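Contributing: when you submit paired examples, paste them exactly as shown. First protein:
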Amino acid sequence: MRRAVVPWLVAALLATAAATGGVWALNATTFGPAGFVRVYLEAVARGDATGALGLAGVTVDPAARTDFLNDRALVGLTDLREVSEVPGDDGTTVVTFAWRAPSGDGLSSFTVRAAGTRFAIFPRWEFAISPVATLHLTVEHDQRFTINGIDATSGVDAADPVDYAVLVPGDYTIDHTSTYLQAEAVVAIPDRPSSTIAESLDIEPSPAFASRVMKEVDATLTTCATQLVLFPTGCPLGHSIADRVVSTPTWSIVDYPNLDIVASATFGQWSVPPTTGTAHLTVDVKSLFDGTVTTFDDDVEFTVRFGVTIEPDDTTLRIVPHYDD
């Protein structure tokens, strides 16, 4: 004869129910739809992604990436409070909970339905609508970003959106900080199961990027000014003189160009649009018409344009001048 084995927890609950005359009470609370939802929310709150994902009816869109369905991405959910439990005509029940996260308070409603019984007494439940949302994230100008401090890459080489599965509710801070780039953090708060929330992270040059490029460009121009010719080699400086040059040309930089850095179509590559600066040229010239000698002593404008690549080590910049196009 086979002996029935009853887990200690179930036995304890049955004893409690018998003592209070309340299997019904357990069905309505601990084993009710709100109790099922609370089990899920408490898993999310304690950062137990595996526990939350393991509950019945928690499904993930196969088209969405799962990078952030992990414990580290779940931060800051507290103060769970049941608000309502509303049965529907289709056999489902909508359970609404209030919650608190670092970015503010919220409400989320979860649709569940019965899925059999446990030990022929207590009902089982499952989510009729999966408590997973889609974060439709666009990361502009670089692949790299962080979400709740987790390093990630979009995996695309252009500002194309990528879909990520995230648990509901959630509080996801999306940011970027690197040697030469920065972004204003955005916060995504998915609070509705099976919803899609769109966010965009705009990554821009940091002051350190502009300072580094400006320093290198200024040094290049200063070196150009040391060449004692009308058209310094590999430089944007130059001035045509129709008469005969009879002294050594000397250059100096009057105004260094004020550079802007803009993104290019290819991630990791940036550009400095055409920008003007001013140099000063001094040289004696002899007129081919009457032989008189005069001094050309005047300012000469020049234009610079550069391509800038951030190398994979994130510290090296490759600055390529484009003077002839």
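Second protein:
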Amino acid sequence: MDPKATSARSISVIIPVYGESAIINRTVRQVRESAVGRETEIVVADGGPGHRTLAALNAPDVIGVCCPPGRGVQMNAGAAVATGDVLLFLHADTLLPDNWPDAVDRAFDVGRARAGAFSLAIDSHRLSLAVVARFANLRTRLERIPYGDQAPFIQRALFRELGGFEPIPIMEDVDLFRRLKRGGQPIAVLKERVLTSARRWEKDGVVRRTLGNWRLRLRYALGAAPDELARFYKPDGDE
């Protein structure tokens, strides 16, 4: 058998949303187009007021889930109805690279990982944001703890073994990968990059947003409660 050969798995893409009616159809369309003909289940878990993002969807084959707000809660709700062998969690303002299903397959077949994430690129020509992305990728490779905007993925069976995401208001992605590391699970960090929106940095300012993210992560590492940290973080949607 060719050591570089990969086997195709069914993949469910779970998109937690809060006020993303303006962009959700673009995101769904890009997931389909970048899958290069690979059949992909898409689940949109809407925790926004009135679930208006789901109402804006014009793709009848997308599975919609109404749930309370909170990314961890929403992603668990989406995962509960997903049927794919692999669960991939995607922010609505993030675009997947071309032929991303093959990259996920290689992570499992060649790298023997059971979970992983993509590298990060930020949709901006600003040098400062290129530097932010570079350092984010370096940190991820060293720590093996990716953030949610890197489209993390995990085998569905392993996700269920772990009990899914903790229902905490923030840092649910860090908590999940910490548990994976403690369990000795290999975590793949792919060279292929997702492209995430620069809107958070543009809204808050590059320095302020970056330092704020670092502060949140440091306080969490020092034992601050997620409920306390969540007071300094707001969703990026439009509702």
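If you have annotations for the second protein, write them as plain sentences, like these:
Residues 127-143 form the longest helix (17 residues).
The CA atoms of residues 64 and 122 lie 28 Å apart.
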